[in-house]
Amino acid sequence: MKTLNWLGAAGSAAALMLAAPTAWAQDDDILVGLITKTDTNPFFAKMREGAAAKAEELGVRFQAFAGKYDGDNDTQITAIENLIAAGADGILLLASDTKAIVPTVQKARDAGILVIALDTPLEPIDAADATFATDNFLAGEMIGQWALGTLGETAAQEARIAFLDAHESQPTVDVKRDQGFMQGFGIDIKNPDRRGDEEDPRIVGHEMAGGSEVGGRDGMETLLQKDYDINVVYTINEPTAAGAWEALKGAGKDDGSVLITSVDGGCPGVRNVQDGVIGATSMQFPLLMASLGVEAVVDHARNGTLPAPSEGLDFYNTGVTLVTDRPVEGLDSITSEDALALCWG
Question: Which residues contact 163 (CB under 8 A, 6 or more apart)?
Answer without folding.
Answer: 178, 181, 195, 203, 205, 206, 207, 234
